[in-house]
Amino acid sequence: MGKVLGFLILAVCILICEAAIFKPISDSHRSAALDLLTPKDGSFESLEVTYKALRSFEVLGTGKQPDIKAVTCKSVVDTVRSPSSASKDLFQALRVNRILKCELNNEAFAGIASRLKDNVNSAGSLLDYYYSVGSLVLIEGQASEVDVHLGGADSVFRAIKALSQSDGRWRYSSNNPESSTFAAGIALESLAGVISLASSEIDRSLISLVKNDILKLLDGVEKYDDGAYYFDEKLVDAHGYQSPLSASSAVVRGITAFAIASDEDLNLPGDKILGLARFFLGVGIPGKAEDLFYQLDALASLENNRVSIPLILSPPTAVLSLTRKDQLKVNVNTVLGSAAPSLSVKLKQIFTSGSKDASIIDQDLKFDPENAVHFLDVLPENIDAGSYIFTFEIVLHNPEDKKIYAAGGRTKVPIYVTGFVKVDHAEVAVLDSDLGNVETQKRLDLAGENSISLSANHLQKLQLSFQLTSPLGNAFKPHQAFLKLRHESKVEHIFVVGNSGNFFEIILDFLGLVEKFFYLSGRYDIQLTVGDAVMENSFFQHLGSIELDLPEPPEKAARPPPQAVDASSKFGPKAEISHIFRAPEKRPPKELSLIFLALVLLPFVGFLVGLLRLQVNLKNFPKASAPATFAILFHFGIAAVLSLYLLFWLKLNLFTTLKALGFLGIFLMFVGHRTLAYLASSSAKLKSA
Fold first, then answer.
1. What pLDDT shows up at residue 616?
2. Cα dihedral value 374, 380, 385, 390, nearest 10
3. Which residue, 310, 328, 360, sits at the end of a domain?
4. Which cellular component appears as one GO term in the record (predicted)?
5. pLDDT above 90 covers what percent of the chain?
6. What CATH number corresponds to the domain at position 303?
7. Whose CA is closest to 179, among 208, 207, 216, 209?
């Protein structure tokens, strides 16, 4: 039981640590994508949903994915060739086609390119620009021979820029005064598209203005305590609320696209770029397909951009064991798990959780090129069992890499160091209440099994004491130290075991506890629980029992609370039910019953004899088909009545018998009347002859 308890505590510890550690995309995301992104009947519900699924698989590099090309390409071709397709539908179809590469010739692309250019010139909202410009950019990447360049790119750029606000956010249209962070993201992406489609170079002053807008937008970014940055959407209108995940993803995609298209050094703060990466990684594995797309699409933009590529430091495990002499290891990768450039990792400081005091370490970790892991051979000597915050620093070797990668400042990582805690000097004793003299004292082996038996009355005390020592010989205070007394009636009492340094002691004065114990005398089981997340030998021990002799309760004393009933107990075996049957009444002899049966059958025998004496025959039985049928039915009816009498005798009740007899009587009257009418007619003809 103790091992199970220790394992559960460690499992909770791991979950807590994982929540504070940012790890790159892993195979867990790939497995989640296969579960979340499952088409129905061979296709997704729309081209937009299809693109998000395909883009997610593309970023993850998943080889195994649903085969939807045949059905999806048909929808893509139909959308592109339809003259009535809206800009949004064309945009989604072209995004899907970029990945699936459906069979579309240059004529199809050229046909929609002219329409899209007209849409750009007549656009009245930010979304119109976004879909039209984005579609032209996609055509440029899929059919380089098609002319998609914008002649008046400067005017289009100015029209989109006119929707920007002083805080770096954008409006969806000139008629809508509300600004949006999500709109800022798609605006920057649209401007990037205009720059790439421009037939002549865009005015650099306009690009500088947008650069200032980006810096203003980053000034309004929100921050978590763990160093993660995110954009919060404050606009709630007809376009709907955008979550921080979708808003942040749109901004990241827009900034990186603008940086690539403008070929400008935006001089963005590396800590904020790294903080945005931490936000997306801190989401973990989203439970919705759309959130998974936003996460992966943003991380892919951060992985390949001209701003700065974030580097993520993460330990393979956040739990180190002093017993196993585990090494401290950390990995440094990009957000998608790619290898980092040449660098070194330094362990700068170690904080004890809940304390501001820190140990200055400043030690370089060794690098294992085969496993691509940085490690420390031996933990610092003063590291005992406990929870710590390790502070690391990434140092890039190549000066040019500092312009490409964002390593951030110091990275704080929570680490749990576990160890075997020594438990000794465990004793339990019964003391006299007045003088405190030891009446009964027994030693305990808290590492093994115990089965003590004690007895006490209300004038005595129960004392339990033990010592806990950490692996380095320091006093150890666990998170849990409870003593439980459980009465044979299942009433439980739990007490916290106090400590002074490494000495733990609890004294129960039964005289002051009689009311809490509800004056219940009898046998109490003694159980001790000691556990901590870093204590490898946490235990839940049954120590034995104590027989308490408490005074009788006064009239108005509180009664024990009703104990919870186990719901599964109602399905268990019930008590056996014993029946007492009435003695059977005395019956007549068997011979008398047989004589009575013979007397009952005697009239029937007389009936048969009478028929023989009367020389019954079938000479008058009708020979014509119809009268013969009625005669046969009449005799069958008589037989049915006799059978009904037999059934009444065997099983039927009176009401059922009378109901059936009523129907048979009506039937017999009808067929009998027809039969007798025929016989009377035949007899009259014979007499007249």
1. 73
2. -50
3. 310
4. oligosaccharyltransferase complex
5. 61
6. 1.50.10.20
7. 216
- DSSP, res 236: -
- Strand 522-531 and strand 539-549: the pairing is antiparallel
Tokens of 461: 């005390």
Helix (H) or strand (E) holding 196: helix 181-197
383 and 464 housed in the same domain: no
On whether both 165 and 119 belong to a single domain, the answer is yes
> What amino acid is encoded at 3 in this protein?
K
Mean of pLDDT values over 238-242? 63
Per-residue exposure over 86-97, b if at least 16 CB sit within 10 Å of its own CB, e if not = ebbbbbbbbbbb
pTM check: above 0.85: no
Assigned domain for 396 exists: yes
Strand, coil or helix: 246: helix
Task: Please count the structural domains in the chain.
Answer: 4
Residue 668 lies in a domain: yes
According to the model, what pLDDT value does residue 586 have?
83
172 occurs within a structural domain: yes
Dihedral sign, CA of 77, 82, 83, 87? Answer: negative
Q: Which is higher by pLDDT, 164 or 588?
A: 164
Residue 232 lies in a domain: yes
Where does the pLDDT of residue 72 fall: very low under 50, low under 70, confident under 90, or very high at 90 and above?
very high
* pLDDT classification of 348: cutoffs 50, 70, 90: very high
Quick one: pLDDT at residue 62? 78
Closest-CA residue to 431 (of 527, 508, 520): 508
Does residue 333 sit in the same domain as residue 306?
Answer: no
Query: Are residue 189 and residue 151 in the same domain, yes or no?
Result: yes
Compute the 3-state secondary structure of the chain and give helix, strand, coil in percent, each to the nearest 5: 40, 25, 35
Write down the pLDDT at residue 14. Answer: 39
Domain residues for 141? Answer: 27-310
Both tokens assigned to 546: 């104590």
539 in helix, strand or coil? strand
Structure confidence by residue, pLDDT tens digits, 563-590: 777 767 677 777 788 877 888 888 888 8
SS3 string, 359-414, reads EEEEEECEEECCCCEEEECCCCCCCCCEEEEEEEEEEECCCCHHHHEECCCEEEEE
In 488-612, which ranges are E strands? Answer: 492-496, 498-500, 503-509, 522-531, 539-549
Q: Which two structure tokens, joined as six digits, stand for 676? A: 């007798």
Question: Residue 260: is its pLDDT beyond 50?
Answer: yes
